[in-house]
Amino acid sequence: MTSTLKISRLTKRYDSVEALREVSLTLEPGMRMALLGHNGAGKSTMMKIILGLIPFDGGEVSVCGGAPGSAASRAQVAYLPENAAFHPALTGEEQIRHYLALRGESTAQAGELLERVGLGHAARRRIGTYSKGMRQRVGLAQTLIGRPRLLVLDEPTSGLDPVSRRDFYALLDGLAAEGASILLSSHALTEVEARTDRILILSRGRLVASGTLPSLRQEAALPVTLLVTPAEGRAKALAAALPGATATADGRLRLDCPQADKLAVLARIVTALGPQMADLDVIPPSLEDIYTNFSHRDGS
Amino acid sequence: MSRILATAASEFRIALRNRWVAIATALMVLFSLVLAATGAAPTGDVGVDPLSVTVVSLTSLAVYLVPLLALLMSFDAIAGEVERGTLPLLLTYPVSRLQILLGKLLAHLAILTLALVLGYGAAGVMAFITDPASITALPSLWRLIWTSVLLGAAFLGLGYTLSSLSRRPSGAAGLAMGLWLLFVVLYDLGLLAMVVTDGGGALTTHVLPVALLANPADAFRLFNLSAAHAVAEAGGIGGAAHAIALWKSAASLVLWPVAALFLAWAAFRKVTP
Ligand SMILES: Nc1ncnc2c1ncn2[C@@H]1O[C@H](COP(=O)(O)OP(=O)(O)OP(=O)(O)O)[C@@H](O)[C@H]1O
Ligand SMILES: [Mg+2]
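# adenosine-5'-triphosphate complex -> structure
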């Protein structure tokens, strides 16, 4: 099976800014990849290059086996721009019909597509009267046209309410299960953490980390946090027995330990202090911690 | 082809909602009826039916109004998409830039044709009511319609070119008005000045015909006036029509839309969203 998207040593300069520098990545069928990075890191720039909207200065990009923006790749790639905009005078249904026609699909599917993104009730209203989230859903609906092999989604959940976000990721799961590759950018780390297979972190145009969440966790080597809840009346004794711990506001004790020592420390605490504890939680570093760690490594 | 038609259908719908169809039609009908009313008044001319007179005045009107309508409809075509932010997504679809332009052109031409047919048609009906003999002048009305459509197509293409070059609707609107002034007003003033200072010399006999053919608005006027054998009535620059064969002005009218579309395509291809 060939990769849906292959980028090697991609470099892009705007007059004074180096927007992307030697970025490489590979996206396989069925894979959901999240692109993270601070504002101006180069996420949207990379997506526009993949779609052939803007030229690049160095490296190689292959989209579904063709050049970015070629007729063959455009037929297989769906895009959701950062700020999806549509003509305000058209209704949602008319706009989707237009996009269906441009992809050579039957325009009769428009209603069903809008239904899938929860816009069925507003299909006959002009887009000019839509809320921001509703416009975003029109954008999502058009990415579902004609079974694309690659979906490039620039901040797809921005403007969506929490329930719609869940529905949206469920939709993505379905597409990925059917073999579509998904590249999405986001600033909402918690949702990305649970719903994607690969994570890419860009910082000032350079790729500072890439891999699965567990592999990034390992690479970052951030400490694991143990939260100990003392048993009735044992708080003082427990604090004395765990000199490295700090007390939290809700009366629990917080202990950081290196990833590698986690099991040893746990075993020691449980055997020695078991009866004095009411509960023990192990909290791995969140994607937010990992993200912060990688983003700050290059001294920014 | 289906992509061009889909684009045209969308554009037509948008123009309908933006009242462009209504505005263009109302303008054409209004002006045509005013001219028809004045043309129908007894002029003392013997043997000239009211429609022939009306067609001559409609020709003079169309030289100004058709390019204006075409530019007003087209200046926003690309710049508007850039400003609304709808262009990047559109360009990721499997549709070529030429197809997008052709779709817009088709929709705008349809609107223009509708306005012209209704406007000129109203004038024709009015002339016929005044004097049923007007029916003999029907071919000249038909000629006026199709040449007006070609004139409109030329300026639609030029409008798309400006729209692509400026990338901002306000800038494109300014350029479009400048272009209109240049082609429709200043160009003729310049030629008039040339003829007056030259006094029937080499410039008038050699440069003037070429200059007239090079401007679609002048070619339009030439073609209709000489075809209607109405040169004498028009006088002035129209007198030059004697020297120019009918096929030449017809060729200019046909070539201009093609050239303008090509220019628009070249300019649109340079637009990065
Ligand atoms: N047309 C342009 N001309 C000049 N510089 C640009 C242009 N577009 C983007 N840049 C610069 O390229 C860099 C990357 O921008 P990009 O839009 O890719 O960031 P991003 O990661 O998408 O940020 P955000 O999270 O805010 O959307 C920024 O420094 C930006 O200023
Ligand atoms: Mg961005």
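# post-check
The CA atoms of residues 37 and 292 of chain A lie 10 Å apart.
DSSP finds eleven helices and 13 strands in chain A.
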